[in-house]
Amino acid sequence: MGGRRSLLIAVLTLCVATSGAFALTREQTVAVQSTIGVTADGVMGPQTKAAIKRFQRRNGLVVDGVVGPQTLAAMGISTSTAKAAKNTTLTDTPPGTPSARLQSIARCESGGDPTAVSPDGQYRGKYQFSRATWKALGGTGDPAKASEAEQDRMAALLLEKQGPGAWPNC
C-alpha cells in the first residue's frame, strides 16, 4: 500500500507542477509564431522553439521554450484565448486589427498613441517610425499624422520584412 500511496503523491505533484502548461491548437501556434516573428505555419518546430526561448530571454521569463501563461501574457495573448476551443481561428480577429505582437510593440514604443513624437522628433507615430523607414515602406508625409490604420499596415509590412528586430528596444 505504501508504494501506491507514493506513486499517487508523485502523480499529483506532477499534475500540480504542470498545471500552467497546456497544448496549443494549430491556430494558436500560428498566433504565437506571428507574435515572435517566425514563419507562421502552425508547427511547433525547432525554429519556433528557439524563437520562443529568445523571446523569453529578452522578456526576463523562464527560458524553457514552453508557451505557458507567463509567456502568453508577455506576448499580449490572453490565457483564456489560448485555452479557447479548437474551432477558434485567426479569422475571428476583425480585419485590420494589428497582431498581438504589433500591439505589444505599439504599447512599448508609444503607449499605443498614433500621434506620439519622440522628444528629439526623430521617431514618430504609434510604432515610432523614422521618416526614412516610413518612406522606404512607401509612406508619404509625417507618420504621426497618418491614420492609425495606415500606421498599422506599415508596421505589419516592416515586421514582415525585418522581423521584430526592427524595434530593438521592444
Description of the structure:
The protein is mainly alpha-helical and 170 residues long. It folds into two domains: 23-92, Orthogonal Bundle (Muramoyl-pentapeptide Carboxypeptidase, domain 1), CATH 1.10.101.10; 100-164, Lysozyme (Orthogonal Bundle), CATH 1.10.530.10. 49% of the residues lie in helices and 2% in strands. The chain contains eight helices and two strands; from the N terminus they run ααααααββαα. The chain has helices at 2-17, 26-36, 46-58, 69-75, 79-82, 100-110, 131-136, 148-162, and strands spanning 123-124, 129-130. A two-stranded antiparallel ribbon has the order 1-2. Strand 1 and strand 2 form a beta hairpin. It is elongated. The model is unreliable at 5-21 and 81-95 (pLDDT under 50). InterPro entries: Lysozyme-like_dom_sf, Peptidoglycan-bd-like, PGBD-like_sf, PGBDSf, RPF. This is Peptidoglycan-binding protein, putative. It comes from uncultured Solirubrobacteraceae bacterium. Residues 39-75 form the Peptidoglycan binding-like domain. Keywords: Hydrolase, Signal.
